[in-house]
Amino acid sequence: MLEINGICKTFAPGTVNQKVALQNLSLTVKDDDFITVIGSNGAGKSTLFNAICGTFFPDSGSVVLDGKDITYEKEHRRARKIGRVFQDPMRGTAPDMTIEENLALAYTRSRVNPFAPALNTKNRALFREYAARFDMGLEDRMKTRVGLLSGGQRQVVTLLMCTMVTPRLLLLDEHTAALDPATAQKIMEITKQVVAENSIPTLMITHNISQALTTGTRTVMMDSGSIMFETGGEDRARMSVEDLLAKYKENKRETLEDDRILLS
Amino acid sequence: MGLVYAILAMGIFISLRVLNIPDLTTEGSFGVGAIFGGIVGVSVHPFVSIPIALLSGACAGFITGFLQTKLRVHPVLAGIITMNMLYSVNLLLIHVATERLKGLKNTNLPFGKSAIFRMALDKLGLSSSSMSAVYVKSAILLAFVAIILLLLVLFFSTNTGLAIRATGNNADMVRAFSINVDRTKILGLCISNALVALSGTMCAQLSGYTDLNLNNGTLIRGLAAVILGCAIIRGGGILRGLIASVFGALIYQLLVAVVVRYQIFGANSSDMKSITLATVMALVLAAPAIRESFIRKKGGKDHAGN
Ligand SMILES: Nc1ncnc2c1ncn2[C@@H]1O[C@H](COP(=O)(O)OP(=O)(O)OP(=O)(O)O)[C@@H](O)[C@H]1O
Ligand SMILES: [Mg+2]
């Protein structure tokens, strides 16, 4: 379970570039949660993920994973429990290494002996088996350099790497955004399947609102660094894309009016 | 001598190509290998100079790595700082050593009969100037290079080795898989500089003396070897890259020999060798761009003809 308690983050405070990226944001991801996150560009969605992963430390608030406060834990330490697929397909894999070498690297998360050979017949077979489950033909290209794969294939490799050793939290940042519709759909199917099979608590950012409403268990809408509203259960099941957009506009108007009142 | 620089080139390959870090510590760690290793070789035993050189080089790499990662110094500056530090250390060491051993302050310390190569030759009853002496020396060095190559290939196929390679490739991703990037960088630099220092001590043993000037131009020489080698033998993979570095070093040495031997630039060829080699290197580096522009020109003509 992940608990985010009122985190705030301001970039470049006190300068003209000052940017409040996260504003007193709280969110709980329970063990059986698969939360989809939506929000306009610059709403702070990726920044939220960065805060969870420890790319920077928040100005205030706390991040608690499985009862352990990890707010100020080093990035690579907490990464042991967190799997993350980046928005950019280039960021999740090492291009000059082969698929199996990338997988072997991801496999080191399961506390392996640092001086044992990274690839032996046993784990080669294991990696092939994993790759075959994704049904993308990757299992026959294990010795191909990842840099030679297409963006979609690379994103699949990243997803494979993130879920091979089951993480305690999975963060997906628009992981299908760079892909063609058919591949995107395929990867979404794979994602759902993997998450369901291993029951991984998951946060997924997407710009596809209908996808956001039909995937997972809850939907959270972010705006200017905080959560505007969230919906789940039957409420969500009944909600259409139009309802959601209407709700967004309504909320937006309210905040604008609030601002006007404050300013006048 | 080319084989000595092959060890150097393998060290530089690790920092330059595997870790993707421009590491300027090289000249300093080569010097510390030559001098500290050399002094130990003369005063204790020539074989002891090998672990000493490896160790001192690794320390140099550690300092540079520490500056780069924990103190966030720019990699180029970190290398320069360590290099300068090592220069002073080397100066001090050689002065103290020559004073102790020879009674005067000097910057040159001969091995006499105690270099590894001299010992081997004496055992075989060969004079050091005979032709077969060259073969014996080459064979010893070749064995060295082969062993190092083998060990490195084995190391880079372990989990730790894989992490080091990935660090140079995509540090973000390595961090996301809970590997301490600072640690892999430092470790990589340690290994790289240990090899450079080993090559330094071998250089001193082969020359039969050690002094402060042995390390002059090692950085550029090593870089040239790696770039040359990798331009000739293309393609990824650690094994290929290391072999390419070894070949690069040999070819570079061959070029130098040709230039000096045939006095291509007249009597002061040895002064002019740097510029020749710089030209050759520039050509090698520019080869892909030149080829591309040729293809484009040809394509243009074809279109004009239509
Ligand atoms: N390191 C940083 N320094 C300064 N500003 C930053 C930094 N990181 C993010 N920001 C700012 O924070 C805001 C939120 O950015 P973020 O990347 O989280 O948006 P997002 O919701 O992921 O948008 P998108 O849908 O386009 O991916 C942006 O205005 C951005 O400029
Ligand atoms: Mg984003």
Helices, strands, pairings?
The complex is a heterodimer of chains A (264) and B (306).
Chain A (H helix, E strand, L loop, with lengths): L1 E10 L7 E11 L4 E5 L6 H9 L6 E6 L2 E2 L5 H4 L3 E4 L13 H9 L13 H13 L17 H14 L4 E5 L7 H18 L3 E4 L3 H6 L3 E6 L2 E7 H6 L2 H23 L1
Chain B lengths: L1 H17 L7 H18 L5 H21 L5 H28 L5 E3 L5 H9 L6 H25 L3 H11 L1 H6 L4 H27 L1 E3 L6 H15 L5 H24 L7 H37 L1
The structure holds adenosine-5'-triphosphate and magnesium ion.
Terminal-residue CA separation of chain B: 56 Å
How many separate structural domains of chain B? 1
What percent strand of chain A?
15-25%
Unreliable spans of chain A are none
CATH architecture of the largest domain in chain A: 3-Layer(aba) Sandwich
Count interface residues per chain for the largest interface. Answer: A-B, 33 and 22 residues
Verbal overview:
- The complex is a heterodimer of chains A (264) and B (306).
- Chain A has 264 residues and is an alpha/beta fold.
- Chain A folds into two domains: 1-81 and 168-264, Rossmann fold (3-Layer(aba) Sandwich); 88-166, no CATH class.
- Helices cover 39% and strands 23% of the residues of chain A.
- Chain A is built from nine helices and ten strands.
- Chain A has helices at 45-53, 75-78, 99-107, 121-133, 151-164, 181-198, 209-214, 233-238, 241-263; strands spanning 2-11, 19-29, 34-38, 60-65, 68-69, 82-85, 169-173, 202-205, 218-223, 226-232.
- In chain A, strand 7 (169-173), helix 6 (181-198) and strand 8 (202-205) form a beta-alpha-beta unit.
- Chain B is mostly helical and 306 residues long.
- Chain B is 78% helix and 2% strand.
- In chain B, strands 1-2 form a two-stranded antiparallel sheet.
- In chain B, helix 2 (26-43) runs parallel beside helix 4 (75-102), helix 2 (26-43) crosses helix 9 (181-207) and helix 3 (49-69) packs antiparallel against helix 4.
- The relative contact order of chain B is 0.18.
- Chain B has one domain (2-305): ABC transporter involved in vitamin B12 uptake, BtuC (Orthogonal Bundle), CATH 1.10.3470.
- Chain A binds chain B through residues 53, 75-80, 84, 86, 91-97, 101-102, 104-106, 108-109, 112-119, 145, 161, and chain B through 157-163, 165-166, 169-170, 172-181, 236.
- The complex binds adenosine-5'-triphosphate and magnesium ion.
- Adenosine-5'-triphosphate binds next to strand 2 and helix 1 of chain A.
